[in-house]
Amino acid sequence: xxxxxxxxxxxxxxxxxxxxxxxxxxxxxxxxxxxxxxxxxxxxxxxxxxxxxxxxxxxxxxxxxxxxxxxxxxxxxxxxxxxxxxxxxxxxxxxxxxxxxxxxxxxxxxxxxxxxxxxxxxxxxxxxxxxxxxxxxxxxxxxxxxxxxxxxxxxxxxxxxxxxxxxxxxxxxxxxxxxxxxxxxx
Length: 186
Fold this sequence. Notes:
This protein is of the alpha+beta class. It is about 30% helix and about 30% strand. The chain has helices at about 15-30, 45-55, 105-120, 135-140; strands spanning about 5-10, 60-70, 70-80, 90-95, 125-130, 145-155, 160-170. The radius of gyration is 17 Å and the shape is globular.
């Protein structure tokens, strides 16, 4: 594995980090990764999107980056559920590793770090989705995520073709403390 450091970014991310994140996002889109964008996104548009994400994410959100000697080579996000009855739940989003740094264990390192940070922040249930048949699907399945099912034609790939999407969840340490108080529902 390439030596990387995993760091948390906040609203005060340096302009150079935003620039690197934009390059990372554009690289992912250009390589056909299913990361919610269609082909043709410019670096400037990607920078604007990252600035918006960093500025508008809830306080409990977690945005991690992987740095190597090459700069930022990966990222992943944890976005808390918005619903008041789901303070224990969050969604994992935008696991991206630059093409030049793939197959070096960086995605695994980012996910392990995100899961630890999520547990430390009190989250006990994580959800995510990914395009069926992509490397990310195999990564999640191999690291203890539970496949829930799939929805055909759920999203578009960067080239505009339809992507069947697979949904996963993972329970984190601490879920044993949760209690269920079911009321009588008639």
